[in-house]
Amino acid sequence: MKVGWLMWIVAITACAVATSAVPLAGQDQQAGKGINTRHHHYKLVDLGTFGGPNSFLSGLTGPLNFRGVVTGCADSAIVDPNFSTQNPYFGGDPYIQIAYRWANDKRFKLRTLPGGTNACTQWINDSGQIVGASDIGVNDPFTGLQQIRAVLWDRDGRVHNLGTLGGNGSVAWAINSAGQVTGNALNDIPDDFSSNFGIVGATQTHAFLWQDGVMRDLGTLGGTDSGPYAINERGQVVGLSAVNSTVNETTGLPSIDPFFWDGRSMIDLGSLGGTYGLAVALNNRGQVIGNSSLAGDQTSHGFLWPSPDGKMIDLRTLGGSYTEPHAINDVGAVTGASFISGDTAFHAVLWTEGKVLDLGVVSGDLCAEGQAINSTGQIVGYSNHDSCLSEHAHGFLWENGELVDLNQLVTNSTSLTVVEGVFISDRGEIAGDALTPEGNHRGVLLIPCDGGHPNVQGCDYTDVDQNVSSQAADTTMFGSAETKTKESRRSFISRSVPGRTH
Fold first, then answer.
1. Partner of 57 for a Cys bridge, out of 72, 277, 305, 487, CB 3.0 to 4.6 A?
2. Predicted local distance difference test score (pLDDT) of residue 463
């Protein structure tokens, strides 16, 4: 998927894990064994474009709700006349981008704010409310870029400007079922570091919580800037914040810690010894996952918070040097990726019940990464064939102890190749990214042909018999693997901010 934000100056991200007392679906299957497992077929729906080459779904956020409604943005056939000053939020795409809602085989355009040309979405809640950002047709006099505003599209498709904190930009990242929205907003105080917290600007950016027409500044941990990643159903928010204004030689940034906002105040989750960390996700129980650099900022580990004594737990890796988290479900199971021993490749992983399970890769591939997990423990993600840093090759589904190429499960005839499972709902519907034969991206929806989705035209309701060797390693206990520093780290962590893509 295309990058929607500037690359981080510090390419340090890591993974986290959590404990669970609830078995996952298929957890009794033995990892690493070739087993005969039945899977459902899926109907693949191309969400299309508005005449341009590409369409996109927001990575690692919430593009799909429980009702099967999808949101994303797609290219029109018109080149953006303001492309030279286009806001980086739109990812350097030369075409005008149109936000949309897809439901019941129909796609509906979502409006921009007055004066705007481009809009793109990030999250949809189960009520059908959608958040994201729109440009407004006015340049920021400090950066020369098009200004953007955080927006909410209500269930009737009307667009609402959520405002700023006095500066020239804002973006909404997530919304819960109560209509509480979190995002970044610029204020009017000059600042050099705001672009490292989720929005490009020349003034400070702070995480905000918006509700019932009021934007609340969540403040910082003592530094100048902060930015959120996610909000749960209890209105708790997680993200990252500067804790001071002293620039570190190792990162070129002030010290940055992950934060947890409990509804009253911003709590510093601390660090594992380094000067950079962030929280990337939380569940409705208030369990938080994220990453933190170790002393010296040359390596980073995942963490779980809170421990029984309220501290950050170092959860380390499967044997390699780095890990990266992406999602945690409400029973505390986490998916992401970890380098294997020797740092020669990274595999999709599941952390649960005090153990780390290597889910492997699609057969014949080199690297894989879990992107989302639902309440039943189904996991989706991507797998790469020739290089861990190459374009994604196969989307995958892990269930019942096996990792399988999603393309093997598609029942209807299509020219698309699914290259990533982006999100999976509790009903088993999958939002993903696919490629056309010409190499253009398409947002797609995969509808399971099962009892929960009867009478879907084009579905094959017979089971798929698969015999897949998941290439999984033995499980290890959290924190049992020793790690080492690598001077050269060509890894999956050297990418854009997790969750800041579409």
1. 72
2. 85
